């Protein structure tokens, strides 16, 4: 019996494979070390280009002058690098760059270039386009920005979002609500700080539109916006939505009303104390924590006898938040009361 | 007569070995190729100046960090400092002291001025009794739970009970989280729909200086063994990224793992097994695939966590025996996945690959060596062929390691010094001469341990079955 019969491969083929393998390893090694050298050279080149741009920006900025034709010619030649360096410069030196880039360079170079970039199949370039629109917010570019808002890349769409916050565009804000509604989790967190600066009239307009046509705006997204801060808007329309069977809607309604210490809020929380979902019940118990109201205390006291441990603990926590609540806990001789007192003294101060 | 039998056995198994190793190695190449594509795509993403709101600390939702520890007095303070230095605006850090007998808890108590508070959470997942819950007076986000000794799984479950947020990060005490990478990469977790769990690429921190801002490669690799393990980690993470590309990942390193808390609790939390981190991922795959629900368990390719590896052979041995034993436990618990079309690619591809490519690999290698012995005994060994095949096998292993080094060089470039890269290239050769053989012996020991403790494994298997039955989507 020959070995070839056993493994079906002749010695020649095996030798060939082995040589190929050694050659492959050698070329991989060559690639690693040559790439290392090339990478360093390219890095040095980029640093030099970067320095030229930075020097030009700083010089013009210090002299408080417009870019001259020579510089503009240079920017046009290295458009891509110009955009990258400019974005970087503006991000890092916001105040200094405000004046520098307000000499019509947007109309001259940036906007036409951004329109071109926004059609690129590479998301990175579309991102640069969105970034240009965002840094130079001009309502003229709303159409392009709306397209970028629907971009499949998160980085692109989020940059377009900023454009609409800066231009206070109602159409744009409505589109952002649609983004929140989509599956991407936690997106509302990213918009939080921008919504805070939004004009209250836009929020009221959104509510009015929702009241007129419930299908035009998603309630879920609207609630996400409403719970960002205490808006001076009429929230009565939410009372009608309380019976929604969606747990997420229920929790969001509670969170919105938590911002308002009104009688309406107490009604909402009482309503959800009998919700079928434990999470919703807990949220409403926690929300009642800050109210010093006889009826509230009475309801919380009753919950101390709940069969569910989570509900009981939530009630203890809520009662321990107020002086009156603590008295109830003392009278009920809740286990670990001293620890609760210490907890109140130390822990709550820090929170 | 015996010779004839041996001759027949040799005749049957020789081609089998050859094809076995050919298929397994080709699978490695395939997964490595997919892994490389994913890494380069990720690298491309990171080159854009995504410097806007994604990096803003306050745009992160609140995260619960859970750090179980047992006798970690040398590392626990560094770990807490590392988490605080992340400067996340909204976070809670839950440290679970798993009944340490050293002074690690006292150290924490003194450094962070801990005061006892009431237990504010119900023990939904059963754990060993809790001795006390503490809160820091100087670090408002820090909570320490002191409990009776269980195992790591028990401490993790206790931390899960206490966590209040949807997103929990469970991290080992000796794992360093790179701040820059954390802010660069972690948003991927928020942006992926239907995430159940996620892991990150883990690198080795032995010989590196970890400060709050960055990791510096002072003396990397510190020793032959840490260097070889660095290569192992690279290979393993890149190949896993390939497997992950098919959403069939079973293994997420316990050094740093992110979970959706509600889902994890609903699945019954961690189980009493050596590789609890592996088992829970397998369980989640089984549950979600079985219920045909949309889900995502994935790796963030960026090297975000840095962990310490053992430097001595005896400690490496201990670790490897445990890993292999744990791997076998978890695969046994979820054996119903094997070639079961109900579980899609996970059952038809990844699970069999795990069995044949990882669990049975040491057995096959030992049988391979035995067949060489038989061939010598029968006088059938063809020396030319023997050396050609040995050369081919070693060459292939070196090829895999060098490919990983190339991918690393072209992507994250985490070995910036020529010395480190040069040494790793040399180690990729050396590891084949003795380390690989040792690793086979350790893994075989893991198999024997599994067989020895089989009764216990069967008991736990029943508990896990119950957990799966109880699962409901939160």
What's the SSE blueprint?
The complex is a heterodimer of chains A (351) and B (474).
Chain A: H1 3-7, H2 11-62, H3 69-77, H4 79-92, H5 94-100, H6 105-117, H7 123-135, H8 142-149, H9 154-167, H10 170-181, H11 187-196, H12 200-212, H13 219-226, H14 237-241, H15 247-258, H16 263-273, H17 278-287, H18 294-303, H19 309-319, H20 323-331, H21 337-350
Chain B: H1 2-47, E1 63-69, H2 76-85, E2 91-98, H3 104-111, E3 114-117, E4 130-136, E5 142-147, H4 152-162, E6 167-171, E7 175-177, H5 179-185, H6 187-191, E8 195-204, E9 209-210, E10 215-216, H7 224-244, E11 256-260, H8 261-266, H9 276-290, E12 296-307, H10 313-333, H11 344-359, H12 361-377, H13 383-410, H14 418-430, H15 435-452, H16 454-470
Parallel strand pairs in B: 1-2, 1-6, 2-5, 8-12
Antiparallel strand pairs in B: 3-4, 4-5, 6-11, 7-12, 8-11, 9-10
Helix pairs in contact in B: 1-7, 1-12, 1-13, 7-13, 7-14, 9-10, 10-11, 10-15, 12-15, 13-14
End-to-end separation of chain B: 65 Å
Order of helices and strands of chain A: HHHHHHHHHHHHHHHHHHHHH
Q: How would you classify the helix and strand content of chain A by structural class?
A: mainly alpha
Q: Major β-sheet of chain B, in short?
A: 10 strands, mixed
Shape of chain B: globular
What's the arrangement of strands in the largest beta sheet of chain B?
3-4-5-2-1-6-11-8-12-7
Task: Indicate the overall shape of chain A.
Answer: extended
Biggest sheet character of chain A = none
Calculate Rg of chain B over CA atoms.
Answer: 23 Å
Helicity range of chain A: over 70%
Count of alpha/pi helices of chain B: 16
**Mean of residue pLDDT of chain B?**
86
- Compressed to H and E, one letter per element, the order of chain B equals HEHEHEEEHEEHHEEEHEHHEHHHHHHH
The amount of helix of chain B comes to 40-55%
Unreliable sequence segments of chain B: none
Radius of gyration of chain A: 31 Å
Measured between the Cα atoms of the first and last residue of chain A, the distance is 82 Å
């Amino acid at each position: 019996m020959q070995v070839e019969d056993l493994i079906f491969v002749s010695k020649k083929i095996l030798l060939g494979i082995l040589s190929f393998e050694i050659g492959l390893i050698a070329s991989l090694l060559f690639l690693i070390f040559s790439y290392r050298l090339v990478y360093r050279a390219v890095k040095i080149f980029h640093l030099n280009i970067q320095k030229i741009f930075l020097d030009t920006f700083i010089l013009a900025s210090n002299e408080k002058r417009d870019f001259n034709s020579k510089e503009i010619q240079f920017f046009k030649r290295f458009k891509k690098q110009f955009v990258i360096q400019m974005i970087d410069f503006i991000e890092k030196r916001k105040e200094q760059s405000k004046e520098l880039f307000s000499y019509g360079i947007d109309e001259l170079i940036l906007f036409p270039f951004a329109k071109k970039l926004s059609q690129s199949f590479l998301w990175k370039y579309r991102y640069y386009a969105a970034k240009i629109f965002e840094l130079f917010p001009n309502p003229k570019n709303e159409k392009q920005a709306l397209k970028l808002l629907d971009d499949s890349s998160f980085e692109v769409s989020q940059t377009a979002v900023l454009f609409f916050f800066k231009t206070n565009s109602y159409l744009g804000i409505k589109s952002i609500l649609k983004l929140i509604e989509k599956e991407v989790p936690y997106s509302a967190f990213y918009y939080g700080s921008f919504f805070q600066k939004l004009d209250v009239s836009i929020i009221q307009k959104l509510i009015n539109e929702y009241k007129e046509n419930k299908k035009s705006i998603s309630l879920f997204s609207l609630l996400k916006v409403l719970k960002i801060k205490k808006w001076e808007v009429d929230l009565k329309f939410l009372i009608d939505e309380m019976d929604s069977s969606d747990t997420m809607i229920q929790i969001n309604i509670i969170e919105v009303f938590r911002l308002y210490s009104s009688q309406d809020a107490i009604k909402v929380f009482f309503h959800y104390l009998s919700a079928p979902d434990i999470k919703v019940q807990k949220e409403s118990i926690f929300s009642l924590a800050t109210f010093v109201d006889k009826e509230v205390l009475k309801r919380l006291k009753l919950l101390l006898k709940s069969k569910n441990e989570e509900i009981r603990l939530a009630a203890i926590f809520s009662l321990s938040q107020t002086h009156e609540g603590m008295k109830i806990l003392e009278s009920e001789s809740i286990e670990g009361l001293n620890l609760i007192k210490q907890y109140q003294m130390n822990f709550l101060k820090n929170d | 007569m015996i010779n004839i039998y041996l001759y027949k056995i040799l005749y049957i198994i020789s081609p089998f070995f050859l094809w076995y190793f050919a298929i397994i190695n080709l699978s490695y190449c395939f997964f490595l190729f997919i892994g490389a594509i994913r890494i380069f795509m990720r690298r491309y993403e990171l080159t854009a100046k995504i410097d806007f709101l994604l990096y803003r600390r306050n745009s992160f939702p609140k995260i619960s960090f859970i750090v179980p520890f047992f006798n970690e007095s040398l590392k626990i303070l560094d770990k807490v400092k590392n988490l605080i230095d992340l400067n996340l605006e909204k976070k809670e850090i839950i440290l679970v002291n798993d009944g340490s007998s050293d002074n690690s808890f006292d150290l924490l108590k003194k450094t962070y001025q801990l005061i006892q508070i009431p237990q504010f959470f119900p023990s939904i997942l059963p754990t060993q009794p809790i001795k006390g819950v503490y809160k820091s007076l100087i670090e408002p986000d820090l909570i320490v739970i002191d409990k009776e000794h269980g195992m790591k799984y028990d401490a993790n479950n206790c931390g899960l009970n206490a966590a209040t947020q949807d997103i929990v990060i469970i991290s080992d005490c000796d794992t360093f989280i790179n701040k820059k990478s954390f802010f660069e990469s972690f948003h991927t977790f928020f942006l992926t729909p239907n995430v159940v769990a996620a892991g990150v690429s883990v690198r080795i921190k032995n010989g590196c200086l970890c400060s709050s801002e960055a990791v510096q490669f002072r003396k990397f690799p510190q020793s032959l063994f840490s260097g070889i393990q660095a290569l192992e980690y690279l290979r393993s993470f890149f190949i896993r990224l390939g497997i992950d590309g098919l959403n069939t990942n079973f293994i997420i390193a316990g050094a740093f793992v992110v979970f959706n808390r509600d889902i994890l609790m609903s699945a019954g939390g961690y189980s009493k097994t050596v590789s609890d981190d592996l088992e829970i991922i397998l369980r989640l795959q089984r549950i979600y695939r079985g219920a045909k629900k949309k889900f995502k368990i994935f790796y963030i390719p960026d090297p975000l966590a840095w962990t310490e590896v053992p430097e001595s052979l005896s400690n490496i041995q201990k670790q490897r025996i445990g890993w292999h034993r744990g791997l076998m436990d978890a695969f046994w618990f979820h054996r119903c996945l094997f070639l079961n079309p109900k579980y899609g690619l996970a059952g038809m591809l990844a699970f069999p690959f795990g069995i044949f490519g990882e669990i049975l690999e040491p057995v096959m290698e030992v049988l391979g060596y035995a067949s060489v012995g038989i061939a010598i005994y029968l006088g059938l060994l063809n020396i030319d062929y023997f050396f050609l095949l040995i050369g081919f096998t070693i060459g292939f292993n070196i090829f895999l390691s060098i490919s990983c080094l190339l991918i690393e060089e072209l992507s994250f470039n985490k070995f910036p010094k020529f010395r480190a890269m040069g040494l790793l290239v040399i180690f990729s050769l050396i590891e084949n001469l003795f380390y690989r053989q040792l690793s086979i012996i350790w893994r075989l020991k893991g198999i024997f341990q599994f067989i020895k403790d089989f009764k216990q494994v069967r008991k736990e298997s029943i508990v896990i079955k119950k957990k799966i039955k109880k699962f409901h989507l939160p």
